[in-house]
Write a structure and sequence with these properties.
The protein has 50 residues and is α+β, with helices and mostly antiparallel strands. The chain has a domain at 2-35. Helices cover 20% and strands 16% of the residues. The chain has helices spanning 2-6, 31-35, and strands at 12-15, 18-21. The protein has a two-stranded antiparallel sheet. The longest helix has 5 residues, at 2-6. It is globular and about 30 Å long. The N and C termini lie far apart (26 Å). It binds iron/sulfur cluster (SF4).
Length: 50
């Protein structure tokens, strides 16, 4: 969340202890995945098929 915020995207937030991504704000930079010490974040590419 901090990395995303500092990157200026503000795409990540916590809701009742669950990390939530705002896809409209996400740039796909993958900074969050690189800095997560637990390796808990994985980025995938949307196919546009639903
Ligand atoms: S990939 Fe998306 S959610 Fe992750 S730091 Fe970049 S903008 Fe934020």
């Amino acid at each position: 969340m901090i990395a995303c915020r500092d990157g200026g995207y503000h795409a990540l937030s916590l809701h009742e202890g669950t990390l939530v991504i705002d896809r409209a704000r996400c740039d796909g930079c993958s900074l969050c995945a690189h800095v997560c010490p637990e390796g808990a974040i994985t980025l995938t590419r949307e196919t546009g098929n639903g």
